[in-house]
């Protein structure tokens, strides 16, 4: 585990309990093996391999259109791959019920997609109630616990529109965590946020990583990729071009394509 992990949240709204971000949840490894997918005649994934060990964080970087979002969607089976396999703890999940699988894999998107007519607490309690079959009271208790984890317990009864974008994204993360996922996928979770709101969300993601959550994080935040992730994958044109430790990727890029990308984003 990298040095920067274990620092905990710098966000003073959060209660700071050790491991508060993950509770007693177990985390699992995730593997995508030789994934291929063509969409609308477009070969979007052209044999991608990705692996993240249990409790580790892999970031995926690469230019727009390189297939990063599609890769996450295939790992979560929002798209079925044309070929290849997706495995949790070494066991293929392509035969598993997709709804059940999505309870095991939490996903956070660029746009938070909270229900505007429901309170923050009810947004989070909905999944545990409908999908995990918890009673109304038990689901609300789980939701409140997760709101505490993301530092927003005091805002439980407000509507999402009364929160900043950063706070809404933290609610969306709490909503995913309330399903007690074994691992989490983040697709540009901070890209839609005003710059001053990015830090709080990244701090929460850092806390989750240090708490032992398995995470695959698609991001343009190179500081996060360098300091928080255990490994970095660079994708281009539907392929994994280069992967390795953050030091290797950022300080010792091997391919001209990665060097060019880094020169544009750093
Ligand atoms: N449903 C679709 N039909 C056709 N092409 C698609 C579809 N979804 C994505 N693509 C194409 O796949 C490529 C990769 O998209 P995406 O995974 O969103 O890339 P990224 O997240 O890296 O920006 C793009 O060229 C995009 O236009
Ligand atoms: Mg994308």
From TrEMBL:
Residues 30-262 form the ABC transporter domain. The keyword Oxidoreductase does not apply. InterPro entries: AAA+_ATPase, ABC_ATPase_HisP-typ, ABC_transporter-like_ATP-bd, ABC_transporter-like_CS, MetN_ABC_transporter-like, P-loop_NTPase. Residues 1-32 are annotated as: Disordered. CDD domains: ABC_HisP_GlnQ. GO terms for molecular function: ABC-type amino acid transporter activity; ATP binding; ATP hydrolysis activity. It is found in: Cell membrane. GO terms for cellular component: plasma membrane. Its main location: membrane. SMART domains: AAA. Keywords: Amino-acid transport, ATP-binding, Cell membrane, Membrane, Nucleotide-binding, Transport. The keyword Nucleus does not apply. It is a peripheral membrane protein. Signal peptide: none annotated. Belongs to the ABC transporter superfamily. This is Glutamine transport ATP-binding protein GlnQ.
């Amino acid at each position: 585990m990298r040095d920067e992990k274990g620092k905990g949240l710098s966000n003073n709204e959060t209660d700071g309990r050790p491991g508060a971000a993950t509770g007693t949840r177990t985390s699992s490894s995730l593997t995508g093996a030789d994934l291929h997918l063509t969409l609308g005649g477009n070969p979007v994934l052209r044999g991608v391999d990705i692996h993240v060990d249990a409790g580790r964080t892999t970031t995926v970087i690469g230019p727009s259109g390189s297939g990063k979002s599609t890769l996450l969607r295939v790992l979560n089976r929002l798209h079925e791959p044309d070929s290849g396999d997706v495995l949790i703890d070494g066991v293929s999940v392509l035969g598993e019920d997709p709804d059940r699988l999505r309870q095991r894999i939490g996903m956070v998107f660029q746009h938070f997609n909270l229900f505007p007519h429901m309170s923050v607490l009810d947004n989070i309690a909905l999944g545990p109630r409908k999908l995990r079959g918890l009673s109304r009271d038990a689901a609300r208790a789980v939701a409140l616990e997760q709101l505490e984890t993301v530092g927003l317990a005091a805002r439980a009864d407000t509507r999402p529109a009364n929160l900043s974008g950063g706070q809404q994204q933290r609610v969306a993360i709490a909503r995913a965590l309330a399903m007690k996922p074994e691992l989490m996928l983040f697709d540009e979770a901070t890209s839609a946020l005003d710059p001053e709101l990015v830090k709080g969300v990244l701090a929460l993601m850092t806390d989750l990583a240090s708490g032992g959550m398995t995470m695959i994080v698609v991001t343009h935040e190179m500081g996060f990729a360098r300091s928080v992730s255990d490994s970095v994958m660079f994708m281009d044109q539907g392929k994994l071009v280069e992967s390795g430790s953050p030091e290797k990727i950022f300080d010792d890029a091997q391919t001209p394509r990665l060097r060019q990308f880094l020169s544009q984003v750093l």
